[in-house]
Design goal:
Elements (H helix, E strand, L loop, with lengths): L8 E3 L2 E3 L3 E3 L8 H9 L5 E7 H5 L3 H5 L10 E6 L3 H13 L4 E6 L4 H4 L11 H14 L4 E8 L5 H12 L4 E8 L11 H9 L4 E4 L5 H11 L3 E4 L9 H11 L7 H31 L10 H7 L6 H19 L4
Parallel strand pairs: 3-10, 4-5, 5-6, 6-7, 7-8, 8-9, 9-10
Antiparallel strand pairs: 1-2
Helix pairs in contact: 1-11, 4-6, 6-7, 9-10, 11-13
Bound molecules: flavin mononucleotide.
């Protein structure tokens, strides 16, 4: 495979270590997941989408989503909303919390969000989009980005229009997930739209959608000329994909993750989750989430069964160790 992509990427004043970015995933890209992806080689990590209304109205649960640690930086925090004044105030709070980059969600097509005029609804309301972006741009000086879909039709005309509006408003990068709002996550992302938008903008365009393996990232960059790639679903349980993409770009090859690396990542994720949420809530989350890391592996289903009633961090760590000890001894013919 022809690779050799080593362009440095900067989003406004923020220089990324490489051109791979963890996508915002609601309910998934919390601090523990972001730390793991950063360790796996991500050049930038993004928060889950955070309600601007929730922030401004002082919801403690929403405020907790701004928590970060230096180890994960640079960090992009994504907010959603449709009211320019509320978005500007939320943007100030995000900047004050120490985010390096502020991202605005133009892609969420869940009905609850769209009916408030936020998320993908902004894709068909260029005037409101402009008002939101102008207000937010005036409110904060950190780099500002938006994440868009194709729009409400497959032509991509709305995406081209919104991207141009955003650039005029001083946005520093645009991420394109080229599916229509109606598509949700079905069908295929139309990468050609990433290339069309890239040709129209001066600011960096980040390509997103359907990268499942490192080779896909190389292909997307070559086909579209995007400045960076963003990975969502393929990073779940697989934080190494970022380092593998970077290795493929720079050396033409990459290596598979070793059992020792997987064990260490799972242990770290378990401990970070308990540290973030406490043992009760943390373990409830881990009962399903630790399973992400053993998908397709031998004894994976037995592991998933065994963690259904986790009550403590110690139990989680013991289950992880037992899984790897069993797998290794089985390979050595001692099972
Ligand atoms: C469970 C889930 C949650 C998501 N949450 C968000 C979100 O909070 N903000 C956002 O902009 N996109 C969100 N997305 C969209 C992803 O960021 C990404 O655009 C999409 O999954 C396509 O990329 P992929 O093929 O690499 O997963 C979400 C997607 C999934 C599957």
């Amino acid at each position: 495979m022809m690779t050799n992509f080593t362009m440095p990427v900067s989003i406004g004043s923020v220089r990324l270590a490489n051109a791979t970015i963890l996508a915002p995933l609601a309910g998934i890209t919390n601090l523990p997941m972001r730390l793991l992806c950063k360790a796996g080689g991500a050049g930038l990590v993004c928060s889950e989408m955070i309600s601007a209304n929730g922030l401004v109205h002082g919801s403690p649960k929403t405020a907790a989503m701004l928590r970060s640690t230096p180890a994960e930086r640079p960090l992009s925090i994504q907010i959603f909303g449709a009211d320019p004044a509320v978005m500007a105030e939320a943007a100030r709070m995000v900047a004050a919390a120490g985010a390096d980059i502020l991202d605005i969600n133009f892609g969420c097509s869940v009905r609850k969000v769209v009916k408030t005029g936020a998320g993908a609804a902004l894709m068909r309301d260029a005037r409101r989009a402009e008002a939101v972006l102008e207000a937010v741009r005036r409110a904060v000086s950190i780099p500002l980005t938006i994440k868009i879909r194709s729009g409400w039709t497959a032509s991509g005309d709305q995406a081209l229009e919104i991207a141009a509006v955003a650039e005029n408003c001083g946005v520093d990068a645009v991420t394109v997930h080229p599916r229509t709002a109606g598509q949700g996550f079905s069908g295929r992302a139309d990468w050609s739209l990433i290339g069309r938008i890239r040709q129209r903008l001066r600011v960096p365009v980040i390509g997103n959608g359907d990268i499942v393996a490192p080779e896909d990232a190389v292909r997307m960059q070559q086909e579209t000329g995007c400045a960076a790639v963003m990975i969502g679903r393929a990073a779940i349980g697989n934080p190494w994909i970022f380092g593998q993409i970077e290795a493929l770009w720079t050396t033409g090859t990459y290596r598979a993750v070793s059992p020792a690396e997987r064990r260490l990542a799972m242990r770290r994720y378990a401990s970070a989750t308990v540290a973030e949420y406490g043992e009760t809530v943390g373990c409830r989350l881990l009962r399903s989430r630790l399973g992400w890391f053993v998908r397709g592996l031998r004894y994976g289903s037995r592991f998933r069964e065994g963690i259904k009633h986790l009550e403590s961090e110690a139990e989680a760590l013991a289950a992880i160790d037992a899984f790897f000890d069993t797998a290794v001894s089985a390979e050595n013919g001692r099972d």
